[in-house]
């Protein structure tokens, strides 16, 4: 049963935040469409204006012309009604994996919010049906691949247009169904898209923007988790807490960097007595953790700005200005801001993977872990020769980190000239967003492994005769982790526990820094 802890999300003239899209993607919020008379009239006025131009035989791109390079081809009025179906039909060539349910909901939310500006020339009935898809959790089956990010996400969004029209397939009540059958079951007539409506649905940045919202939310939680893991590792490695001193960071006051240091100080209860130091200066993966994580922390604000402006913009073409009775032909479908944001995010996140990978390498190595057993094995002395603890986990973590770093190649610089050189400079924003999601997946795997290893290290320290009590925040985290992840004494296969940890990360299970 779906629960709704989030306030209802209203599509209309009120801007949405990333958190609204995340709530919808996770089925944690009900939706409604703004329905006051003035708003409904604003939407209807755009559709009426388009109809009046058709009556006057006005030339409108994608309405009375062909698409893309075919904009020079006039379409006789008797064929105008057939154009929308042809548009979503010939774009039905997506390949690759299907977007998952969470991502598909985010895409639907991004597309609806863009069309709600009232400058796309669509009917209120289209907005109502798209909102109903979200409310009833009717999810078009959308292949991931096939978009160059300008003229928008044409191919993946064609699956939205087609399913609204009762074609292709959807996921409904956890079953793969024909869209026509779901319409019939709900007593709906499939939409017959009006001139401009298929173009309005497809000619925009909704796929990359929906994915960007999800990527942002994952990165935000990952930042907090990596900070907590670092604090655990300072304890496990008996590091120097003075590396996070407030006066030190006042000398280089990047706000995000200062925040990370403050969180680590809170976790370590830094004013409490500390254990004797093994090194005056810890290795960089501990000492410089605020400097590494701080770059992501300081970047989140401008990343949010790029994503939310795109989310709350009209990004199709042409723009229909019914008030001034003008049709404005432009390129708002170009996803350059999202492309740059996602290329930047994947580099920021991969650096988190690299940081945590280095911390784990210190934990398992007796040359650097200040007295912990080799590979963090909890086996007794007589069984130590047989047990290898976290040895293979560290190897896997190195592999995941390497793949994350490899995937930081920016997609946005790989523009291709497509569609008879009409789309001759494209954003690659959707590929960048998919890359960012993949880098996040890999980095979350690194975080899961390093978290379990850090927890093992803290447990091993707690068994020493001179063990000190953990600071409150870390004691609580250690106790929470102990419920699911018992210490590794004798070797055991850790795949299931790593997957459970990944599930906990996806659910943002642990309450971290505010």
From TrEMBL:
User: Any idea which UniProt keywords this protein has?
Assistant: Lyase
* The keyword Heme appears for this protein: no
Give the catalysed reaction(s), semicolon-separated.
Answer: L-tyrosine = (E)-4-coumarate + NH4(+)
Q: What are the BP-aspect GO terms?
A: secondary metabolite biosynthetic process
A GO molecular function assigned to this protein is: tyrosine ammonia-lyase activity
Q: Which domain of life is it from?
A: Bacteria
The protein's name in its UniProt record: tyrosine ammonia-lyase
Organism of this sequence: Pseudomonas fragi
């Amino acid at each position: 049963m779906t629960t709704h802890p989030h306030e209802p999300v209203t599509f209309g003239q009120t801007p949405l935040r990333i958190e609204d899209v995340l709530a919808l993607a996770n089925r944690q919020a009900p939706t409604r469409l703004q329905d006051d008379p003035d708003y409904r009239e604003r939407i209807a006025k755009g559709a009426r204006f388009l109809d009046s131009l058709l009556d006057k035989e006005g030339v409108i791109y994608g309405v009375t012309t062909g698409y893309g390079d075919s904009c020079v081809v006039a379409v006789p009025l008797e064929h105008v009604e057939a154009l929308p179906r042809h548009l979503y039909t010939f774009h039905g060539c997506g390949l690759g994996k299907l977007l998952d349910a969470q991502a598909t909901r985010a895409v639907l939310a991004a597309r609806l919010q863009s069309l709600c500006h009232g400058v796309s020339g669509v009917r209120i009935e289209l907005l109502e049906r798209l909102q109903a898809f979200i409310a009833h959790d009717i999810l078009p089956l959308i292949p991931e691949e096939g978009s160059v990010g300008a003229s928008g996400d044409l191919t993946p969004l064609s699956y939205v247009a087609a399913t609204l029209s009762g074609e292709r397939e959807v996921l409904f009540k956890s079953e793969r169904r024909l869209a026509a059958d779901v319409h019939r079951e709900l007593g709906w007539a499939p939409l017959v898209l009006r001139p401009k409506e298929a173009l309005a649905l497809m000619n925009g940045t909704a796929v990359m923007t929906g994915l960007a919202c999800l990527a942002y939310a994952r990165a935000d939680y990952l930042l907090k988790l990596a900070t907590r893991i670092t604090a655990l590792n300072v304890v496990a490695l008996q590091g120097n807490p003075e590396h996070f001193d407030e006066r030190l960071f006042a000398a280089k006051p990047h706000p995000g960097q200062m925040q990370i240091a403050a969180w680590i100080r809170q976790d370590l209860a830094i004013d409490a007595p500390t254990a004797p130091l093994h090194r005056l200066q810890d290795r960089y993966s501990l000492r410089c953790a605020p400097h590494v994580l701080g770059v992501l922390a300081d970047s989140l604000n401008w990343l949010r700005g790029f994503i939310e402006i795109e989310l709350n913009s009209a990004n199709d073409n042409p723009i229909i200005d019914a008030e001034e009775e003008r049709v404005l032909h432009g390129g708002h479908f170009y996803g350059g801001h999202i492309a740059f944001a996602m290329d930047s995010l994947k580099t920021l996140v991969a650096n988190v993977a690299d940081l945590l990978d280095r911390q784990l390498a210190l934990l398992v190595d007796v040359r650097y872990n200040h007295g912990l057993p080799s590979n963090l094995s909890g086996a007794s002395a007589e069984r130590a020769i047989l047990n290898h603890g976290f040895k293979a986990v560290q190897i896997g973590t190195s592999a995941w980190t390497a793949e994350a770093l490899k995937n930081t190649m920016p997609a946005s610089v790989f523009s291709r000239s497509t569609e008879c050189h009409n789309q001759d400079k494209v954003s690659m924003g959707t590929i960048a967003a998919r890359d960012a999601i993949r880098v996040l997946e890999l980095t979350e795997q690194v975080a899961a492994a390093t978290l379990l290893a850090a927890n093992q290290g803290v447990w091993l320290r707690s068994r020493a005769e001179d063990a000190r009590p953990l600071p409150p925040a870390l004691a609580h985290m250690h106790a929470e982790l102990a419920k699911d992840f018992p210490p590794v004494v004798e070797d055991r296969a850790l795949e299931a526990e790593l997957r459970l940890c990944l599930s906990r990360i996806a659910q943002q299970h642990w309450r971290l820094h505010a």
